[in-house]
Amino acid sequence: MITDEQLTLLEKYIKESNNIVFFGGAGVSTESGIPDFRSKDGLYNNMGVDFSKYKPEYLLSFACLYHEPEVFFEFYKQKMDTRKFKPNITHEVLAKLERMGKLSAIVTQNIDGLHQKAGSKTVYEIHSTTAHCHCMNCGREYDGSYIFDNDESVPHCQYCEDEKAIVRPDVVLYGENLPDHTVVKAISAIENADCLIVGGTSLTVWPASTFLNYFKGDHLIIVNNEPLDVPTNERTDLIITDTLGNVFTKIDDVIKE
To answer: Residue 37 — pLDDT band, cuts 50, 70, 90?
Structure first.
């Protein structure tokens, strides 16, 4: 749990910073009901009998999309539809900090679009999003619901002459590179931040483990529900072991729009 001393420092850092960047992982959205990937209650440990013979990473890979599209889309439709979920207190307070002019950007590994639903404007989705999809042949863009609401086992483009042209999610799959233009903007935001708040990520999975290397500002704040084994800088670092919901509820109490 966050201590009174930590809360005092957190309030001080936020109040004296005017270019905060938030870097978040799956833990940001778990309190909205969206499971993470690797915890005991996460997606990879609760795939169901239908997918038990597959490795989790394969089901969300380009290889699966290419070689077994029926399997890929069955899993994707069942497990990746986040449209019913709503932003939680963390999403809401981050949007408030942006409106106040304190927070300049959010860099997220999540694909659920909840930051935008909460009202955040500058969001760099380094794994892209389930909110959009596109034809692999002609590139035509579709709303993400086109896949989830499609009755076909494999969704196809309505406009291509090639009737087999597949519409795929914009999400970055295993085996694919991160979108360069988004990564460049995310790294630039982190480089220019005076305060970096990291939340809901173990900081052990690439690229989370490398993005922090670009931070040159004054205050690095790490919030995670589990203790983390990460390098610290005593001059700038504040590591809080607590839920994001509890920490951002307290932040909400000390800021005013």
So the answer is: low
pLDDT digits 0-9 by tens, 163-213: 899 999 999 999 999 999 999 999 999 999 999 999 998 877 776 678 999
Q: Catalytic site residue 127?
A: yes
Give the CA angle between residues 64, 147, 40 to the nearest 5°: 60
Cα distance between residue 204 and residue 153, in whole Å: 35
**Radius of gyration (C-alpha) of the chain in whole angstroms:** 19
Domains detected in the chain: 1-32+87-127+177-257 (3.40.50.1220)
Number of neighbours of residue 190 by Cβ within 10 angstroms: 22
Separation of alpha carbons 212 and 135, rounded Å: 34
User: How many CB atoms lie under 10 A from the CB of residue 124?
Assistant: 22
User: DSSP E strands: which ranges in 98-246?
Assistant: 103-108, 123-125, 132-135, 141-143, 167-169, 195-199, 219-224, 237-241
127, 134, 181, 219: the active-site residue: 127
d(CA 156, CA 150): 9
| Residue 98: DSSP 8-state | H
Determine the residue type at 240: I
Query: In 10 A of CB 102, how many CB atoms?
Result: 17
Answer whether residue 45 shows pLDDT above 60.
Answer: no
Does the pTM surpass 0.90? The reply is: yes
In 147-231, where do the E strands start and end?
167-169, 195-199, 219-224
Which runs of consecutive H residues, i.e. helices, occur in 55-113? Answer: 56-59, 62-67, 69-79, 89-99
Distance, CA of 12 to CA of 253 (rounded, Å):
13
